[in-house]
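Structure, all two chains, one model.
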Amino acid sequence: MKFTEEQVISEISSIFSPSNQKNPQVLVGIGDDAAVVATDKHSVITTDMAIEDVHFKCEWSTANQIGSKITVANLADIYAMGADPQYLVVALTLTGKEEMQWIKDLAQGIADTAAASDSAVVGGDLSRGEKIMISITAVGSSRLHITRSGARPGDSIYLSALPGWSRAGFEILSRNLSDSPAHARALSQFRSPELSPTIMRSFKSAHALCDISDSLMIQAEQISKASGVNLTIDSSKIESAEGFADLAAVAHLIGCDVWDLISGGGEDHVLLATGVNLPGICIGEVRAGSGVEFPEIKKAPESWRHFN
Amino acid sequence: MKFTEEQVISEISSIFSPSNQKNPQVLVGIGDDAAVVATDKHSVITTDMAIEDVHFKCEWSTANQIGSKITVANLADIYAMGADPQYLVVALTLTGKEEMQWIKDLAQGIADTAAASDSAVVGGDLSRGEKIMISITAVGSSRLHITRSGARPGDSIYLSALPGWSRAGFEILSRNLSDSPAHARALSQFRSPELSPTIMRSFKSAHALCDISDSLMIQAEQISKASGVNLTIDSSKIESAEGFADLAAVAHLIGCDVWDLISGGGEDHVLLATGVNLPGICIGEVRAGSGVEFPEIKKAPESWRHFN
């Protein structure tokens, strides 16, 4: 490294510590053996990691985007339980070839994304390895919790936003397609998926809830199986969702099937819910039975494995 | 891999899930977006990772030992705050070259070590990378918490056990010294440091407390600085501790200074405390002033950087 481990820790701590000091729920923040924080009766815990050249490429994304994306992945899992994120810890491996500014940008991406969901980074661990690796654990507060098993016949099915954009962005980058204004939303969503705390929090009255980071199709099947119900998705409802026409245009431009992007893509960190009168996009209904019916999709294509 | 990601997740889950199902505090265990667990008013959170060829070598340690060691590192940080560990999440990167039995042994090492401290693995994330990487986050319950800043003049200084064994084991392995019965304890302590929940829990009346994973000298200096006091260590008290003569014999055999091992080694995951009438080894006293006095050590040798 062009600097010592102590210098990196000092720079990173100075980015994360202010939110610790401002937050009366953080009793002991960064700097001791562990953080001490105020918790509720029930907490939600999840962990999600990102590895260079597996989950992200430094040529494709800025440090800030990489930090934001892995933070969003963790926060979305907390929201996907009907909970509110509170605390994050970050285990970070650097190769030693990074510029200090790159490291600071990564930390800032994590810190800003955490702050936008009212959560704070309260600890971490730094190491050196051959690839950059970021492993985040998020802890949230749960008064209630919503699993995949609560769907009931008669429920409607909802998405918090239209998925498929992140996968479109991945295709554009991995096929090295030329930059174009039409690609902007897809690239942006791949590099740094948008998290919408407001709509995610408003899914707290859902009966069944999950994040569709592995794709709409896979996770609809999980709800179907866990709840013992049939999920029938109405593609005409998806067609009328905000952004569908734009996504279809991008799909056409890059030679993808828009339904493959929507049903088989992942990493948009959109919530899938069943319930009554939820916000977001209503895409179908829950029926007695089993399995997922999605007329546009005969079978989730084998080749559509998400980017990890 | 010789098997699919789903098979690995299934095998690992079957090792971790029984403790989830037995534990009434685990409301939602492995398998949903996140775990939901019962927590106290205050929780303690820490994260610690281990990377192949940086923190461990597969030629030197079994999978079970590697799993146990990184778990101990996390649990010790929870005890070092005067708290009780409860929940762990594990982010694991595999290269794809491992045998399934190796992976199961790794998981079993983590599960057994967690169980010995009454804690359970409630979630995780699996990925593929060029090196094996294990990142664990531990969450514990804290009715009180003990930082590094509580030492007062008049306190005695205590260790929960004699440190130096792990460093001796590292020296034996890294210099490729021949196997010998005299090396057994050092090798065992390096490969899989012993955690003593009973004595660690009995340090809850300490005034200042920390884990000495970075070495006795470094962490005594941290207590001294954080508390604004002087720590005077009496080496004759350490000499009368259980195992000192054996460690000195090993040090002689491998050509190390026993005081370098004790003061500059690390990763034994021993607690350092100040207070009154604590168990363990009393090694000195806290005085008004600053700095650490340790007559046997003129200066912590630059070369003694711990193994990470």
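Chain B touches chain A through 56 residues (CB under 8 Å).
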